[in-house]
Amino acid sequence: MALTIGQKAGWGLADLGVVVFVVVKQLLVLAFLTSYLGVPAGIAGAATTAVLVFDMITDPLIGYLSDRTDSRFGRRAPWMMAGAVVMVAGMVGLFAVPEELRGTAALPWVLGFFCLATVGFTMVAIPYGALAGEITEDGRERSQMTAWRMGFASVGILVGGALVPGLAASGGHAHAALVVSPLILGAIWFSVWSIRKAPRHPTPSLVSPAEMLRHVLGNRPFMVLAALYGVMTLAIALITAGLPFAALYLIADTGDTPLSALAQSLTVLSLLFAAFTLGSILSQAGWVWASATLGKLGALVLGLCLYILLLFGLFAALPSVNVTAIAGVFVLAGMTNGAYQQIPWAMYPDLMDVTRARTGAAIEGGFSAIWLFGQKLANALAPGALGLILGAFGWQETTEGRAEQSADALRALHVSVTLVPAGILVLAVIGLWVLYRPRAARVLPAA
Fold it and tell me: Can you say whether the dihedral through the CA atoms of 74, 75, 77, 78 is positive or negative?
């Protein structure tokens, strides 16, 4: 039975709430520790990475449990509804640090609530990803669903990357987290309600954890794609983790460009995220068309190659005194990032179908867990890697929001948010063409 537009859009809506949290944790936690709590960059990066590694450990467990859940609301809904509450509670708590805790003394508080928030995130994200393979087996519908998802995700990027930093600057980080919490909860809960009548596997899986893992690992094209998606995510996560620093230290607007006044009222960081989001939203229909015309793999490779060219252009443009020109570059960045956002999420459910057809096992939660594992590993490594790089070149922590940095430290930041991610994406493109393409062609002739 074909999904209605309301069901496709409703499924996508949940990602608005998910992405707000993802952007907040990637964009603000490291900068919050180093620029407001006075934690040294190397320690802050390592601590953030440790929490995100812990987050990965919970993925297979939640995937397995959601596959086996038996409730009148289905296998996935109870996890998503409860996880949303845990996620927002942890997010607000991690920023609500008591005034007397500063420096490394604040780490136990921040990390404890950060762990809680990431557990809630896993409770939402794993079942949510599993639904993509459960409510439809039509590849074109999956592309359309993913376009809706990424359209809402772009709004989440705007809220998390533009609204939250502005609210944090005016009222504090905890206040900003509290303000966006109802939006996160509402998006996830309404999404669950909107697909309540969509097709799904009504009975829980009886597959053991060992069998589940064997089935997932035995799907070689899926495993290659999951690993390469993790490589892509590492590049994007490095950019995201470094962007708050780049907005402070690499863009010194002269104040006389068309968007200068807007940058001053929103902050440069918020303006750049708004530009990025605009590009992403504008690109979604185009990437659906490209996927139908070139195939999903061809469209993804095209998008990543354009992304690489844009990062080289951004390297040449920074440092800059023209915030308007940089905002224009970020519109283009959002358009190229749209391929990374949309297409892999439409590709991997097609590979889940291969295992279900061969074995009869409905283990979408297991596939979703392994899929997100690579993404989370990359997101865990990125802040730690950036913290180590900046620390090695003498980056100075502060509690004032900004400190004087050496030329070497600024150069390291400049390269870390442009050329390093570009090089990582080059590796991803090679991997897609050399490793993934021949394996996928054996099981998906149209891949």
Answer: positive
Judge if pTM exceeds 0.85: no
SS3 assignment, position 167: helix
Question: What is the CATH topology of the domain spanning 8-197+208-443?
Answer: Growth Hormone; Chain: A; (1.20.1250)
CA 226, CA 192: separation in Å to the nearest integer?
26
Residue-range domain boundaries for the chain: 8-197+208-443
**Count of H helices and E strands in the chain?**
18, 0
DSSP 248-285: HHTB---S-STTHHHHHHH-HHHHHHHHHHHHHHHHHH
In angstroms, the CA 122 to CA 56 distance is 8
283 contacts 312 by C-beta, under 8 angstroms: no
Q: How far, in Å, CA of 206 to CA of 196, rounded?
A: 23
CB contact set of 439 (below 8 Å; sequence gap of 6+): 220, 221, 224
**What is the maximum span of the chain, computed from C-alpha positions, in angstroms?**
65
Among all chains, which residue has been given the structure tokens 């590796």? 427
Q: Which residues 6+ apart lie within 8 Å of 191 measured at CB?
A: 10, 11, 12, 13, 14, 17, 80, 128
Alpha helices in 135-219, H assignment, sequence order: 139-158, 164-171, 173-194, 209-217
User: pLDDT band at 202, cuts 50/70/90?
Assistant: low
**What are 415-428's pLDDT values in tens digits?**
999 999 999 999 99
**Pairwise CA distance, residues 250 & 404, whole Å:** 12
